[in-house]
Design goal:
Layout lengths: L9 H9 L19 H24 L13 E2 L1 H8 L3 H10 L6 E2 H17 L1
Parallel strand pairs: 1-2
Helix pairs in contact: 1-2, 3-4
Length: about 120
């Protein structure tokens, strides 16, 4: 399988960070003819999340609040299972095998980390 490299310009990353929610839909890089497949769409969504959290963390930090983004690796979801059993199955099996833990994560593991972090942050 040919590797895909996603290159975002500085302007594109700024657009992801500061565009109002519905304004994201008008960014050139997020138009249907630009998104090549579901993997590309997923990568762009992840990057948008990171950039938006970075921008919001500055705003909310001025008010004394902290904002974090949890961006785990491969998590077993219905989407991951569909991909695992679909045309890209070998690609997913390879990713699963290369996970640092030797396996993908679960939604419960992410929820537990998020919940524990929230509790710790609130107690400080």
């Amino acid at each position: 399988m040919k590797k895909k490299i996603m290159i975002l310009t500085g302007a594109g990353q700024i657009g992801m960070a500061i565009a109002r929610r519905m304004g994201l839909l008008s960014l050139d890089m997020l138009q249907p003819d630009t998104i090549k497949d579901t993997v590309h769409a997923y990568q762009m969504a992840k990057r948008c999340n990171v950039k938006r959290v970075m921008a919001e963390a500055v705003k909310w930090g001025e008010r004394g609040a902290g904002i974090n983004s949890i961006s785990p690796g491969i998590i077993v979801t219905s989407l991951a299972i569909d991909e695992f059993n679909g045309p890209r199955g070998d690609f997913y099996k390879n990713m699963f095998a290369k996970c640092p833990a030797g396996r993908p994560g679960t939604a419960d593991e992410v929820a537990n980390v998020a919940g524990n972090r929230h509790v710790l942050y609130c107690k400080q």
